């Protein structure tokens, strides 16, 4: 398989030969702005124009309104010999995307067949991954399934890749859940995925789009690590997602892990976000229990509220508690906060100002 290295495309090199090595027609196109250019003016140079910033934009615009005959001419110049070259090109990839959007179904099928055997490599390439995502949106279901099958042995590598994760997310969003044969590969890796900057996004898409039968093993695995995930810079987003969109049983399990941990977790940079989300999404009884815990003195008799007020993260959790509490608890919270504000003023604390304004 030949992968195009756009660094060798002479029309975009910055040495003194770059201008001379452009074809005369592309050179004129770049300099002659007064001429009204049409697609027929650049036939025979479609590939070169596609790899040029200005030429690519011109072709993209023209494809949207091109006749069937014009699209066919563009297609024939690109496919099959130049497909992989342009798919991976910084400017050419946009032309291929337009063909997936506006080409005939035959064009889309042939293009998809051209990239399918190389889908694992293309999915992790900066420009080609955009083409693969666009293809997934516009090709027939059978070809979507072929891409899933081709990617299956490499799915975990793709999930952890800055480009590939977007391809996996697009497949989860667009392909019928029962046809996503790579999902079992995530079992046993839920903690690893949850704490990964790209894996956490893919996992959230799974919970969003897959069936209960497919997500239950992943969710059950997730529950084993909830406390650790709350405190992780990426895992906390997965836990927040469960609190906001999960089934009642799963949300209740997460909140049960917070019980007895509210002060500790609210003082943590990442877990404090989970505490806020829990206060927002909990049922009435659970919310009251979490807030009551915040109003209960620590074992040494010190005020939990005073500790939270002085903490850079916990003070936001306290503000959230004031905003979501029922009238009875809100009144009690404020009555406990007020005496602390006097001593807080000694610190000239920005946190106390937040609390004053939240009452």
Automatic annotation (TrEMBL):
Segments annotated as Pumilio repeats: 41-76, 77-113, 114-149, 185-220, 221-256, 257-292, 293-335
Keywords: Cytoplasm, Repeat, RNA-binding
Superkingdom in the source lineage: Eukaryota
PROSITE patterns according to UniProt: PUM, PUM_HD
Residue ranges of domain PUM-HD in the record: 21-359
GO molecular function, one term: mRNA 3'-UTR binding
Subcellular location(s) per record: Cytoplasm
One GO-annotated biological process of the protein: nuclear-transcribed mRNA catabolic process, deadenylation-dependent decay
Signal peptide residues on this chain, from the entry's feature table: none
Keyword Membrane in record: no
Family: Belongs to the PUF3 family.
Protein's name in the database: Pumilio homology domain family member 3
Record organism: Russula ochroleuca
């Amino acid at each position: 398989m030949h992968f195009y290295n756009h660094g060798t495309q002479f029309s975009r090199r910055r040495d003194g030969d770059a201008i001379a090595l452009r074809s005369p027609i592309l050179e004129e196109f770049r300099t002659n702005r007064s001429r009204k250019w049409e697609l027929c003016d650049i036939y025979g140079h479609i590939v070169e124009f596609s790899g040029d910033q200005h030429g690519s934009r011109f072709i993209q615009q023209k494809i949207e309104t091109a006749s069937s005959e014009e699209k066919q001419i563009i297609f024939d110049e690109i496919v099959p010999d130049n497909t992989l070259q342009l798919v991976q090109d910084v400017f050419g990839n946009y032309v291929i995307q337009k063909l997936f959007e506006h080409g005939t179904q035959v064009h889309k099928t042939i293009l998809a067949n051209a990239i399918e055997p190389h889908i694992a490599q293309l999915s992790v390439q900066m420009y080609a991954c955009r083409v693969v995502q666009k293809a997934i949106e516009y090709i027939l279901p059978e070809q979507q399934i072929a891409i899933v099958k081709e990617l299956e042995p490499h799915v975990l590598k793709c999930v952890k890749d800055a480009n590939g994760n977007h391809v996996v997310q697009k497949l989860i969003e667009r392909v019928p859940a029962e046809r996503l044969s790579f999902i079992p590969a995530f079992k046993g890796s839920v903690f690893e995925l949850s704490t990964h900057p790209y894996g956490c996004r893919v996992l959230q898409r799974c919970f969003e789009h897959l069936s209960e039968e497919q997500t239950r093993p992943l969710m059950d695995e997730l529950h084993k690590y909830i406390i650790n995930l709350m405190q992780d810079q990426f895992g906390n987003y997965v836990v927040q997602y469960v609190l906001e969109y999960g089934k009642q049983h799963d949300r209740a399990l997460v909140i049960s892990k917070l019980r007895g941990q509210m002060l500790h977790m609210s003082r943590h940079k990442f877990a404090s976000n989970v505490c806020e989300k829990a206060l927002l999404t909990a049922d009435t009884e659970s919310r009251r229990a979490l807030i009551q815990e915040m109003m209960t003195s620590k074992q040494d008799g010190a005020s939990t509220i005073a500790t939270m007020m002085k903490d850079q993260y916990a003070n936001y959790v306290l503000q959230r508690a004031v905003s979501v509490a029922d009238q009875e608890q809100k009144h009690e919270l404020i009555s406990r906060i007020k005496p602390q504000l006097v001593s807080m003023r000694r610190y000239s604390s920005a946190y106390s100002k937040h609390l004053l304004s939240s009452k």
